[in-house]
Every structure is written in C-alpha cells, then in structure tokens.
Write a structure and sequence with these properties.
The protein is an all-beta fold. The protein folds into two domains: about 120 residues, Immunoglobulin-like; about 90 residues, Immunoglobulin-like (Sandwich), CATH 2.60.40. It is built from no helices and 20 strands. Strands 1-2-20-3-17 form a five-stranded mixed β-sheet, with no helix packed on it. Strand 11 and strand 12 form a beta hairpin.
Amino acid sequence: MRRALGAFALALSAGCEKPATPAAANERGAARSSPFTASARVQPEPAIPPGEVRGEVRFVGEPPARRSLAVSAASGCGGDAPLSDALVITSGGVLNTLVHVRSGLAPQFVTPPTATSVVIDQENCVYSPHVVALRAGQLLEIRTNDGVTHNVNAKPARNERFNLSQTPGAPPLEARFERGELSIPLSCDIHPWMSARVHVLEHQAFALSAADGSFAISGLPPGRYRFEALHEVLGEFEFEFELDGRAGVFVALDFARAGAADK
C-alpha cells in the first residue's frame, strides 16, 4: 500500500522557524531533459532513523510502453528480442532512478569508497543491470556470459575513454573512473542495441531505486540538502529539504506525462 504523506514544512532558510505553506511542501515542475513533469513531497517520520532518507519513485498515470530492442537475426544472439531496460515501471514503481545529494554534504563527512567492485554482466547480448552507480575510483567489472564476442565502448566526458574487445570466456574487463560523472554510456559496436549507463559519484550519498521504486540513503548529518533525481528517460528533477538530526524523512518522487497532473 502506498504510504500516506502529510504536509511537511520545508524551511525557506536555515534557522527559520515559521511553518512553510502547503505549497512549499510539494516541489513540482518540469523535469529537465525530458517531456515529463515531476514532484517531490517530503515529510519527517520518527520511525526512520535520524540522518536517513527513504522514499519511492513512481510514475503517475499510464506509463510509456517498453519497446523491443532491434536485435539482428545474424548476430548470434538467440532467443526473442528483449525489451528495452531504459524505462522499467512495475505497478507504478520506477526502476533505476539515481537519487543523490547535489549539495549540502560537507567534505569532512565524505567517506572513502568501498573496496567492493560493481559488476555489469553481458547476458543474451544485453547489459545487466542496465544502470549502475559507484564511487569515483571504485572498481567496475564488466563480465560476459555470452558465446559471442563483444566490445565494450565507454564514452565518458570527464574520464578516460576505452573501447575493448571481450571474447567468449574472457576474464572480466576492469575499469576505474577517477572523476565524478553521471550517465556515462556503455555500448557495443558489434551489437548496437546494447546499452548501459554508469553513474560515478564523488561521495556516498546516493542510491538507485529498486524495481518497486524504493530507495534509501543513510548516514547524513543534520543540515540542508539539495537532491537530484535522475532517470535516463524521465529526466532530472531537483528538490531541497533540511534534516534536523531528530528524525529521518520519507520522500515521494512522482513523475508524470506533462499536463497529466493538471487534468
């Protein structure tokens, strides 16, 4: 069941004690880089630990249909044409939205990246998962389970590019992106329908939404934060709120077709 959300007074400036109006509790507008609109509703919840942000990313209304990928019959990739993973919506929940802090996290609270690697596999000539997020300097492993040769073509703008061949049974390719950069595209020139996105963050305050749209970010000190929700198809939307150190917050992020919320 969808969590009921009451109004949450968002302070307009640090230290302001005057309650915000209901409009201030519901940031809403056009999503950048897309024809969709977005809104963010935030409320404190004592049941959520201080410093933790939990939420859901949902699509309101009839979602766009997933398209079939144009798989070549002569590619050596068997089976039916898979559906695109660029936009996956299940019962309203949006998969693979990056929610991250844009500003407000002081440098002294940034932790070192984990030594655990992040993995992208190649299965049936599709990257899996379609989106990953990792820290700058963290190891990315690109594996293959396919019986055909791939080439992994990474085209970052701020990091070093690579375009490497990977034959069946080859060991994983290893890469590190040393600078923060969002939406780095991965592709395969041999199988042009293959695509993935890599988000590289310079701090730990981020999460990718799960299949039901849920996400969680913890360990944030008290302060005012500006967040961004970024999705490959639905676009980008920023919102701001304050953590008071007494309770965590729940964020409802809704995307919709432009004009749908006004009808």
